[in-house]
Amino acid sequence: MNWQVITPLIIFLVLIFIVGFWASKQMNKSNSFLQEYFLGGRELGGFILAMTMMATYGSASSFIGGPGVAYTQGLGWVLLAMSQVVTGYFVLMVLGKKFAITARKYQAITLIDFLKERYKSKWVVLLSAFSIIIFLFSAMAAQWVGGARLIESLTGLSYSSALFIFAISVMVYVIIGGFRAVALTDAVQGVIMFIGTLILLVAVIIAGGGIPNIINDLIAENPNLISPYGFDRGLTPLYVSSFWVLVGVGVVGLPQVTVRAMSYKNSKAMHRAIIIGTIVVGFIMLGMHLIGVFARPILPGIEVGDKVMPLIALEVLPPWLAGVVLAAPMAAIMSTVDSLLLLVSSAVVKDVYINYIKPDAEENTIKKMSFGVTTILGILVFLMALSPPDLIIWLNLFSFGGLEAAFIWPVVLGLYWGKGNKFGAISSMVIGIGSYIIFHLYYPNLFGMHTVVLPVILSLISFIIVSILTSNKIKEEADLQY
Question: What is the pTM of this model?
Fold first, then answer.
């Protein structure tokens, strides 16, 4: 075992645990366990908000899977990945102040709380909770696989032992600290991700003999590696532009990102978060994917894409510095998985148990339920991650697409279109989820576009048509109530 590499990682984990324990003390002082545990008391400032959004979005895909695909595809994948730069800006500009004000008015703690109050429908709530639980399980499994593979590469431990260490590390601080622990550790992790990316990018460029030299090596191997179309010219302009729906526009519909747009302190914090978030996401996405491509001439012949990042760090850096830098992907993975774990837990406890099973549950019971459900979910994901797929990015993108197809229009049109109603929202979710699964399984990349595009279009059409057709029924229901 290489202790020079592992020691900085252990220091990083200890730091994260200290933040988790501090957050748990804050939670004990709070008057509302639910608001504190799942939303951090709505007290996030601009810097923390920017870093928690970036860290939640920047995941195992960005730091392990993405560079692995860039290693294979070349600079075309870097271009495609850069479409994510405007993600944070886009989410906060679209949802922004209106979403935060409406969420406070509804006293919403979760995204589903917002949908419940907006549409007044049990079926919207249950469909939302079902979507979050199913698709986020895939996303969580992807992150846990990424974390375990990283520890496996560094320590030489078996995959199962590495997965166990990763699972225990994440579950301890999420269970004790809740959202505040997650947001604060995200901020620490975001800083580590930024610094780690910078150090590794510079080291890879130096090891490759400079950028011109690396480009010449790539051209000598395959000129397509420096084209926008990928190593086999499979990245067509239509596919690249449609991919932006998945990682740009569609991110507005991701519950783990949306909930952060509820949690900021004031509009000054939000504006600050937009600027900081866009710059940091841009730098990290560009840096990590360039590292993947530039690693190809230095370490040719890596067969498992997910291993490119740890192997190139160990190749071009002294062991102790590789340990510091590899804390960055570990931070990215932990920051995403902790948010997903908390989100699925809130869907079960807040949205199903309190809303429909025991609305008069006492605070102490809710507290025990929240800790218990988070623990059980962690164990289930651990079991799912025991048989991992080869490339985690595809598992992660599957869950992204499913959630976006389910939530984007009920959230966005729920905010900005007064005529949108519960029937429109239900049809949009059913059509979005159903068509996404069918296209994903039987007609992937239909017409050369990414699979998520058609379900997002179909769910929009369905939302608008059904809302218009059922407007009289909604009016009749409202008249009956009054």
Answer: 0.71
